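Example with several molecule types.
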Amino acid sequence: MMSLAEDSISRVPLAQRDPEVAAALKAEQKRQQDNLIMIASENLVSRAVLEAQGSVLTNKYAEGYPGARYYGGCSYVDRAEELARTRALQIFGAEHVNVQPHSGTSANMAVYLALLKPGDRLLGMDLSHGGHLTHGSKVNISGRYYDAYSYGVDRGSNLIDLEQVRARALEVRPKLVIAGASSYPRQIDFAGFKDLAAEVGAIFMVDMAHTAGLIAAGVHPSPVGLADIITATTHKTFRGPRGGLILSRKDYASCIDKAVFPGLQGGPLMHVIAAKAVAFKEAQQPEFVTYQEKVLSNAKSLAAALTELGFDLVTGGTDTHLVLVDLRRKKISGNEAERLFEEVQITANKNIIPYDPKGANDPSGIRLGTPTLTSRGMGSEEMVKIAAIIGAAIDNRNDRLFLDQLKKEVNLLTSEFPVY
Ligand SMILES: *Cc1c(COP(=O)(O)O)cnc(C)c1O
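Resulting structure tokens for the full complex:
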């Protein structure tokens, strides 16, 4: 049997070792360059983050936590995880952090494992009103192993009405109240949630998966100091590697850490944790605040331009990085719009809107976000252009030649703003 070194497997570049995968990677990079990516949960990481994530730390097993591992040889990965932890605590001003969750979903599962027993009640936002699968959906473990209830948004305003949430909490008497969403374009009143959770004696959790970057930069209200537990992803507005984290008060530290490992996960992804540390350092730079301010102002410009073009926006606008468009007035379904946008090289996702008369398979909305476009350096002027392209595409959806013209306009824009 030849050793790795003898076989020189370790030295052969990807393009030579595996041309098929290399081709897929190259094509994906080109897709990211050539399309206007408006998926609100996506972003572009820096070269430094890519480098850390594609590093030799992927070779290391490190079950446990820094200074208390079940494997030898952990001194350098310990350093990386300590850097990640220290920086995360500085950024959010929290008492405790766990940076090991593999994803936002794993972070949420770890919290439930730490705080709930199977059959305990939780109260989260309805998936069809903008909540997340992991907040108690029947198709997710959170709705199968726990007794899950939901609250929605107000039928008139499409806003979360705390009085309605409070009434629901008094009726359900949950052990855990969850605030946080995937397609809610407005700020959430964390202080109000804290009060209603306290009134029913529930633990209060915030899932800031979408808004973590905005919160880190201080351009969105922070739940730290209000929520008992906070979960986040590091790859959405935060612009780091794909992964999760959990912030908590000190008194929850030990049960959270035990739930992540050995409760739910095995070896941590040390290469991803190193990349998280790099992203946290980037989030501590003044440019990060400028970036997040631009994410918000771009979303506002996009919302204003779409409104001007006769689009209905759920809640009438945004104070986050995303807008949720109600397409009914434009007589086009979410599926049709998603497909049409793809023809002109705009990538977005169809999305259910609150009280959607159609189902989740072909909903009435489309969700648009600005983090990726802003990472490319685009600003308000480009948002107005993109809104115009979206409007023109929908108005001329059956005109092949016109759509080709729009695609050329998109090509011009994307070539002006290189990705890497
Ligand atoms: C994206 C998201 C998650 C899950 O994140 P994954 O990393 O995809 O598992 C959890 N909660 C909310 C509110 C989200 O938007």
